[in-house]
Amino acid sequence: RNQCPSVPREVQVSLRPPPAPELELEPEQVTDTVHSELTQAAFEMALVKLFFVRALPFVLVEAQVFREFIALVAPLMTLPSRYTLNEVLLKRVTNEIRSSVVKLINQQTYVSLVTDGWSDTNSSSIINFMVVAPGMPSVFWSS
């Protein structure tokens, strides 16, 4: 452990983050509520968004430990295959996000297209296109 000898021990202890709060619900309460409202389609969309946003490898759905986890937290759900995640669900969520972005852009009075050109470590040229407007978050459009 790397510790700074010039910092007093009580200061080191006082700077530690507080422990995470304990979960107050009983596991049965959580799973009953979730399973009664969760459909297969909603489960699949939430799962693919998790994989997409966190850049998780789709091969994770083939791991036994992941299958066991899903069986524990969502026993009524069928885990989609890696192919379904990549070819069907990812396209569906991409289209859903693109539609919401287009709707957001269409609501703006003025927009600007901003470009940014650079080279990666392999000396490949890359140009990114962003859509910006006052009062709207910048939107990555394409690369």
SS element count, helices: 5
Helix residue percentage = 40-55%
Class from secondary-structure proportions? alpha+beta
Number of strand segments: 3
Order of neighbouring strands in the sheet with most strands: 1-2-3
Largest sheet: 3 strands, antiparallel
Radius of gyration: 23 Å
Instruction: Give the CA-CA distance, first to last residue.
Output: 43 Å
Strand content: 15-25%
Low-confidence stretches: none
- Note the run of SSEs as H and E: HHHHHEEE
Rounded mean pLDDT is 82
How many structural domains? Answer: 2
- Shape estimate: extended
Structure, explained:
By secondary structure, the chain is of the alpha+beta class. The protein folds into two domains: 79 residues, no CATH class; 35 residues, no CATH class. It is 46% helix and 17% strand. Strands 1-2-3 form a three-stranded antiparallel β-sheet, with helices on one face. The chain starts with 8 loop residues before the first helix and ends with a strand.
Summarize the structure.
The protein is built from 5 helices and 3 strands, in the order H-H-H-H-H-E-E-E. The protein has 143 residues and is of the alpha+beta class.
Chain-wise SSE layout:
Layout: H1 9-14, H2 27-37, H3 40-53, H4 64-73, H5 82-106, E1 112-119, E2 125-133, E3 136-142
Antiparallel strand pairs: 1-2, 2-3
Helix pairs in contact: 3-5
